Amino acid sequence: MKSGTLQLFSLFLLVFLFAAAVSRADGFSGRGLNEAEKLSIRQRQLLYYRDEFGDRGEKAWKKAIVSDPLNVTGSWVGSNVCNYKGVYCAPLPSNKSLIVVAGIDLNHDDIAGFLPEELGLLTDLALFHVNSNRFCGTIPHRFDRLRLLFELDLSNNRFAGKFPDVVLRLPSLRFLDLRFNEFEGTVPSELFDKNLDAIFINSNRFRFNIPNNIGNSPVSVIVLANNQFGGCLPASIGNMSKTLNEIILMNNGLKSCVPKEFDS
What we know:
Elements: H1 3-22, H2 35-46, E1 48-51, E2 54-59, H3 60-63, E3 65-67, E4 87-92, E5 95-105, E6 112-113, E7 127-129, E8 134-137, E9 151-153, E10 158-162, E11 175-177, E12 182-185, E13 198-200, E14 205-209, E15 221-223, E16 228-230, E17 246-248
Parallel strand pairs: 5-7, 6-8, 7-9, 8-10, 9-11, 10-12, 11-13, 12-14, 13-15, 14-16, 15-17
Antiparallel strand pairs: 1-2, 3-6, 4-5
């Protein structure tokens, strides 16, 4: 696919996902905006941070980037963030006159740094893709403000620590990709109760027994490979037969016992 066609397709997909996410959450009302609401919108759009001395006009995320060999953030200058490379804006479906940051796509940009808590100000995000970079640290707790987030791709970075429980508090999330990082510890059973279409948590350092409620998940694809899972596959996996197209479990600590439901 030619690059121009690919960009148009990506933009169309972003607008589609943004509209789908907004349809699941409350938007702004049709009345006029007061000054407090306008200020809130500016904060969400401009990626500014505030401290006890007030707004210093500095970009929180740009300051959290320590290496950018491709100079992706070279365009991150001025207040019009819709012109920033990797930042995509779209009209808010509930108020077409309001242009907001609806997506961030920095895939394969070799950027090193971390994700600051101020990203939680971008409450209209439907898509956040930063795969194949060198981001480290943990996932911001304030991501739980991203009530419209539909796709979260953090794969192939250097994120570490426990499973980021903040993803369990994202009501619109349908696609989760945490593979090829350094997350460790257990995976909360609540993950499999979420209405996700895809779960990729392979190639980390997770250690846990696959919980009985895995069969509650409506996913079409789930990849758990290259971790350390113990025990057997729960019989509830048979409940996934109507939605599941692919499951990958290789290179784990699973025992040889396979429930008869797995063949049904």
